[in-house]
Amino acid sequence: SLCEQVMWHTALHAEFIHDHADYGFEVAGSRFNWRTIKDKRDAYVRRLNEIYENNVNKAHIDIIRGYGKFTADPEPTVEVNGKKYTAPHILIATGGQPLVPPESEIPGASLGITSDGFFDLEELPRRSVVVGAGYIAVEMAGILSTLGSESSLLIRHDKVR
After folding, report:
1. pLDDT for residue 61
2. Are strands 77-80 and 83-86 parallel, antiparallel or unpaired?
3. How far apart are CA 107 and CA 122, in angstroms?
4. Residue 147 contacts residue 34 (beta carbons within 8 Å)
5. Contact call for residues 80 and 68 (beta carbons, < 8 A)
6. 3-state DSSP call for residue 113?
7. How many alpha carbons lie under 13 Å from residue 154 in its C-beta half-sphere?
8. β 127-131/150-154 pair status
9. Predicted confidence (pLDDT) per residue in 14-41, tens digit
10. In Å, how far from its chain's centre is CA 153?
11. In the chain, what are the domains?
12. Of these four, 22, 47, 97, 113, which has the most CB atoms within 10 Å of its CB?
C-alpha cells in the first residue's frame, strides 16, 4: 500500500542517517518525529486518492462498492447489493481486511492492533511485538525497529520436525 511505501522509505532514510558517518558526513542531533511523518504521509495518501478518483471519473468508469457475487446468467454477470451488472469483462477488486481472533481463541488478542491500526498510531511505540511471518509483518517489524521501537517478531510453529 502507499502507506507502507512511505513508511518503508522513512525507515530507509533512518538507515542512511545512521550510516552517514561511515561516508564522512557529520550529522549532529538528528531526531525522528513520528507525528511529522504521520501527518505528511496521511496528506500524501489523501491527495493521491483524490487524483486517482478524479482520473477514474474522467475515464467514465463506474466504481460499485458492496458485496458481490457472480450469477448463473448466461452472460458474465455479477450481482452487487441486489443489482445485476453485465459486461464482457468484469473486474472485481476484492480488497482485504485483517482479522483479529476472538478472545476465547487467543486471550489478549483484543489488546493488539491490526496492520491497518499501525497507520493510525499517534506516536512511535517504545516497544512493539509483531505477530506473523508474512511480508507485511516482517516489513512492519523492520520499520518499527529501524525508527527506534524495540521490536520483536513472533511466528507460529505448530510442530517441531
Report:
1. 87
2. antiparallel
3. 25
4. yes
5. yes
6. coil
7. 6
8. parallel
9. 999 888 888 888 877 788 899 999 999 9
10. 17
11. 1-63+96-154 (3.50.50), 65-94 (no CATH)
12. 113
Digit-coded pLDDT (tens) for 59-104: 998 888 888 899 999 999 999 999 999 999 888 777 777 888 899 9
Interhelix angle for 2-19 vs 135-147, to 10°? 40
Could you tell me the pTM of the whole model? 0.70
Show the cell assigned to 43.
496528506
**Residue 36 exposed, middle or buried by CB count within 10 Å (0-12, 13-18, 19+):** exposed
Residue carrying C-alpha cell 507502507: 4
Q: Is 129 exposed, middle or buried (0-12, 13-18, 19+ CB in 10 A)?
A: middle
pLDDT digits (tens, 9 = 90+) for 126-161: 999 998 888 888 999 999 999 999 999 998 776 555
Give the span between the Cα atoms of 89 and 40, in whole angstroms: 38
Long-range contacts of 45-49 (CB under 8 A, 24+ apart): 45/2, 45/3, 45/6, 48/2
